[in-house]
């Protein structure tokens, strides 16, 4: 079981680092589906795991001067307030409702990602071949 948990964490770290997505998109479904952890607990565990992984990512990206601490601090103000609000809100939701909301969110992110990638591809083609309208 410990090896499975470490491998899930490894995959979440690799995928979140490569794609810039929060590890929660990977960790929460993995914990719920593969480890049988409840949705509420999986979300709490995921939030705790984000702390060291985010610090590692910031440390590495800051070496390349890719971290704007001013913007990050401003975002953090709203994010902390939102996290406190949502942590209270999810306690009033059943596990089934929370799973449904989380699943719909993942689907929405996936659709948005596909549409954005497709639009980017079309823009690149238009720049490369401006006379082919």
Walk me through what this model shows.
The mean pLDDT is 88. The protein has a domain at 2-93. The chain is mostly helical and 133 residues long. It contains five helices and no strands. The longest helix is centred in the last third of the chain and has 34 residues, at 95-128.
Q: Specify the structural class.
A: mainly alpha
Low-confidence stretches: none
Compute the average pLDDT. Answer: 88
Helix content: over 70%
End-to-end separation: 57 Å
Bulk shape = globular
Number of helices: 5
Q: Largest sheet, if any? A: none
Transmembrane segments: 7-35, 41-59, 71-90, 96-115
Membrane topology: Multi-pass membrane protein
Subcellular location: Membrane
Main location: membrane
Strand and helix map with partners:
Elements: H1 2-19, H2 24-35, H3 39-63, H4 69-90, H5 95-128
Membrane topology: Multi-pass membrane protein
Keywords: Membrane, Transmembrane, Transmembrane helix
Main location: membrane
